[in-house]
Design brief:
Elements lengths: L2 H4 L4 H14 L7 E4 L5 H12 L6 H5 L5 H9 L6 E4 L5 H14 L5 E7 L17 E7 L7 E7 L7 H5 L2 H10 L5 E6 L2 E7 L2
Parallel strand pairs: 1-2, 1-3
Antiparallel strand pairs: 3-4, 5-7, 6-7
Length: 202
């Protein structure tokens, strides 16, 4: 990444972009879905503090605080002319991101790169944090297959109790844990009245 662009990226952006670079491979122009529950919340909080103190805001800082900023910087740095999407859907962000990626595959794309990233909430917003959090990013190269692979479906929740794995891990990490492990054939993520079911096919 060119130094002029790299200097505009904070820690979360660097984590996300590193995953995107590693996951890109030979898929340099395939569509990309960037998914984060909160985005660069630390930068947004810094801007809010400056507003509260009556200080002028940096246009550069503001431009990189919006939710699609990390994807935009990746696109600029790599002359990526394919589609990229920024997704945020609360506790269901990882599922919403996969639904978006699958929709693009069904629409004719051969591969989609999906990058999930998040970090812990900054003070004082950490009081709203509903589970364990840490800086992380993961990248998936997704394509349709006729045999094997995984599928994802949703429906009304029959039990509002959280899955045991989901209670100890952030939702995106719990999904990653299921996808890379071969010990379970299904993983269920319940959010309010909705139930997401990840299914591994032999």
């Amino acid at each position: 990444m060119p130094a002029m662009i790299r200097r505009r990226v904070e820690r979360l952006g660097r984590v996300a972009l590193q995953a995107a670079y590693w996951g890109q491979g030979d898929c340099s122009q395939c569509p990309i879905v960037f998914a984060s529950r909160r985005g660069d919340i630390s930068r947004s909080l810094q801007l809010l503090r400056q507003l509260a103190m009556g200080e002028p805001l940096s246009p550069a800082a503001f431009s990189t605080s919006v939710h699609n900023a990390i994807g935009a910087l990746y696109s600029i740095a790599n002359s990526h002319t394919g589609a990229y999407t920024a997704v945020a859907a609360g506790e269901e962000t990882v599922e919403a991101a996969f639904v978006e990626a699958l929709g693009q595959l069904v629409d004719g794309e051969s591969h989609v790169l999906l990058v999930c990233y998040d970090e812990s909430m900054a003070i004082p917003y950490d009081t709203f944090q509903d589970g364990p959090e840490f800086a992380r990013a993961m990248a998936y190269r997704i394509r349709l297959v006729d045999v094997g692979g995984f599928s994802l479906r949703s429906g009304p929740s029959q039990d509002t109790a959280c899955d045991a794995v989901a209670a100890s891990l952030p939702p995106d990490v719990a999904v990653l844990d299921f996808l890379v492990s071969d010990s379970e054939s299904r993983y269920t993520h319940t959010v309010g009245a909705r139930r997401w079911e990840w299914i591994r096919h032999a």
